[in-house]
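hi support,

uploading two proteins for the ticket. first:
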Amino acid sequence: MPQPSLLATLLLALAAGSAAPPAVATSFESVIKSGNARELARWGRRFEHGEGVDRDIDHAIRLYCKAAARGDAAAHYHLGWIYAVGRAGARDEALAAAWFYRAAQKNDPHAKRMLERLGHEGKPRQAAVCLLSDGGRANADGGIVQPMRYAGRGGTTPVSITREHPAKGRVARMVRRLAPEYRLNPNLVLAVIEAESNFNPRARSPKNAQGLMQLIPETAERFGVGDVWDPEQNVRGGMAYLRWLMRYFDGDLELVLAAYNAGEGAVERHGGIPPYAETQAYVRRIISRLN
């Protein structure tokens, strides 16, 4: 008998869960203060599905994360589901498996089935982290941890993106629409586009970097860009590369930006930002644009 597809399994799992009755609207700030794991998970589900409250996937993740830290198996499973189906951005099967594995360790039968469908055996290599839709993370108390940072004088310093980029028009609207799919702050992406091409979709550099995000042909091919001169394809390719760099350099924004400009190989060879005047100025210019 043929096995059902992963999509069919996900849909069946969703159908199997009975919908909770609509909740009375309340503030997220009051709910997140709870120390009761089951209550946190229950409200996480309500925020995930918009049951009596405005739907907010990041609020759901923060509530589930706090509940999971307190041992709630359902919260582990729901986090796995969110990343498996891409509710917080692009689908992330490795991260989903990490959360399903934790739920399976608590004898959740649905989680065990999902691990089988995802084809993951043994202990996952990916850490079970609570990634938010814009690239941030939630911690064990449901608080937001800013993943972007830079090693300034006195040690590692968080980078808070406090400025809204002033860009308007079609490209800016497209970036703000697409960035959550890649768990990136749109203001970061807009700052990179400004530095790379000044929003010129036909820009070409002497090194043959092309389009809005100045993709070289090798990078475009690596991230599946078929037409580098198509603005959306170009932006998607650039954001996929930024997302990859975020994970590769564990959110160190200086290294991410340096690698986007000079390549991750150059960052690794020099053990940090390469001693290139262009790259160092590039990193400083974008960070100063963000806060």
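and the second one:
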Amino acid sequence: MAESRATLAAFGVQVAPLRRRTARTYLGRVLVHPYNLLVVGSVLLLSFIGWSPLLLLLGLGAELVILCVVPWRGYFRRSIDAQLDEADRAAWSRARESLIRQMDIRHQQELARLDRLIDRTRENIRRRGGAVPLLLDDGFGLSRLLMSYIRLAIAHKAGQESLAMTNHSELMETIRSLEAIRSASAGRARGLSERRLAIAYRRAECWSRTREGLEVVSQKLATILELIQLMHEQSMTPVDSPATCAEIDRFMRELDGFDTGESAQRELEELDMDMDRAFELEELEAEPTQHSRPMRLVAR
């Protein structure tokens, strides 16, 4: 955040300095807190209405106790820190927006696309159950990378405007005409033509350097864009978890054991059925012998 603020200051953008969290900061927040102002106002009003110095002293004592206790409580400090952080983020966002407005429309659209890719990358990492690395966290490397993109985009727009102000073909034609004038003139006119020619040479050299620098800036912008795209694509790569494979293997072993148990149960049931049939056959064979009666011969 400090480096980003330095970059904003280099571009002339006024950003409120970061608030130092000192004891005076928390005391001031307690003094201007609405509840504290309500208590103080009520005590003063009641003491002046009733002309009661004792009530005024009690109110001042209560205020002193509040100032000695509340600023050092953890919950109060956390609340004040959250408010100060939110104010810093709002100031930072306003300053960043003022820089974005200085960019070209095409680069503004690319920056919005980069912001969406970064948000999706963080979401992909959280969905996979991993912690977001410091590189993708706000205020670390990624914030500086985006600030570099903004700075380069502004420089790219300035370079394009500088090139657009100079007609290179006309400049080269001017150089050729001045060279012809210098060779044909003499005396004071020759000196003036040489001076103009030196200026034209420097303009042509400046145009060439601007064009070369513009190409370098374009390559850097493309590199940042491709780098963020790479991080997004890596966050979408499926992860082969060894724990999942082990769980599948364990389930297959249990399933095999379940199948073996079923086959053994079927064999036992078939064996029981065979034994029942054998017992039934023995009973059927034994019934004629048990219930048969002796035959009697009747003589006629």
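thanks. also noticed: Confidence is low (pLDDT under 50) at residues 10-14, 290-300.
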